Amino acid sequence: MEYKKREVFELEPHYSKHVNALTKENLLGKSSIPAELAYRDWKLAESQSLINDLQKLLASTDPECAAREALILIKQYKVEQGV
After folding, report:
1. CA angle 46, 47, 48 (to 5 degrees)
2. Count of CB atoms situated within 10 Å of the CB of 76
3. How many CA atoms lie within 13 A of 12 on its CB side?
4. For 37-64, how does the pLDDT look when each residue is reduced to its tens digit (9 = 90+)?
5. CA dihedral of 1, 77, 50, 16, whole degrees rounded to 10
6. What is the DSSP secondary-structure string of 25-58?
């Protein structure tokens, strides 16, 4: 994996928020930062999977069934995420 050079001013306020959090949590080592990024990638992938599943349901020909299944998926996701 190769990282692109980013213009941090375009990423505000997210960039500063993360710099402050990494500093506050002493995540300054070479392994702790990738570990946090990997965790976030994992969470994003899980969220994207839920979005994909919900989009498939919305394309269903039976709106009532799609709505019930969507609620089940969302509840299951919340349980898995501890929300």
Report:
1. 90
2. 12
3. 4
4. 788 888 899 899 888 888 888 787 687 8
5. -50
6. TT--STTHHHHHHHHHHHHHHHHHHHHHHHHHHH
